[in-house]
């Protein structure tokens, strides 16, 4: 197989995109929905704890390693002149960069930082207002990250098909 390095890099990129898509998907379909069902003050405390705990090496490798893997895979596809795969990887990298990284930095992180500044305990009315102001917009922003990472995953899967056809 003459494109074994490209195949391995594409699989690594696919794994990274899949991990991040799955992460955002889980938040969309269960985590925030579950938090919306409990007392707002408890939801705030839980979200503060989850936001603090997500800053770890395992998440960092997946989140920050994926665009690096995509970029290296794209460069390899271009160097080996697998043009279709290179185009699909460029689309994946754009989806990830704009829809995941940029949106996270501009929307979700500032919202998380603001929530981290909330001091507990709160009155029930304060907690309800803070959670309502946070949860809905955060979920909408996360849905966009989920879609963007899903598109990156799909584009990377397309590149894998094109790489295997060329090998």
UniProtKB/TrEMBL annotation:
<dbReference type="InterPro" id="IPR013901">
    <property type="entry name" value="Anthrone_oxy"/>
</dbReference>
<keyword id="KW-0472">Membrane</keyword>
<keyword id="KW-0812">Transmembrane</keyword>
<keyword id="KW-1133">Transmembrane helix</keyword>
<feature type="transmembrane region" description="Helical">
    <location>
        <begin position="57"/>
        <end position="79"/>
    </location>
</feature>
<feature type="transmembrane region" description="Helical">
    <location>
        <begin position="86"/>
        <end position="105"/>
    </location>
</feature>
<dbReference type="Pfam" id="PF08592">
    <property type="entry name" value="Anthrone_oxy"/>
</dbReference>
<feature type="transmembrane region" description="Helical">
    <location>
        <begin position="142"/>
        <end position="163"/>
    </location>
</feature>
<protein>
    <submittedName>
        <fullName>Putative membrane protein</fullName>
    </submittedName>
</protein>
């Amino acid at each position: 197989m003459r494109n074994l390095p490209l195949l391995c890099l594409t699989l690594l990129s696919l794994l990274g995109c899949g991990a991040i898509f799955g992460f955002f998907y889980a938040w969309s379909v269960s985590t925030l929905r579950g938090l919306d069902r409990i007392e707002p003050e408890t939801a705030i405390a839980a979200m503060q704890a989850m936001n603090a705990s997500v800053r770890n090496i395992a998440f960092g490798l997946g989140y920050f390693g994926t665009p690096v893997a995509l970029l290296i895979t794209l460069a390899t596809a271009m160097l080996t002149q697998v043009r279709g795969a290179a185009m699909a990887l460029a689309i994946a990298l754009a989806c990830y960069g704009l829809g995941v990284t940029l949106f996270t930095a501009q929307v979700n992180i500032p919202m998380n930082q603001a929530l981290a500044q909330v001091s507990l305990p709160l009155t029930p009315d304060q907690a309800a207002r803070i959670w309502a102001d946070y949860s809905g917009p955060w979920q909408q922003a996360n849905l966009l990250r989920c879609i963007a990472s899903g598109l990156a995953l799909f584009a990377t899967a397309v590149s894998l098909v094109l790489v295997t056809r060329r090998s």
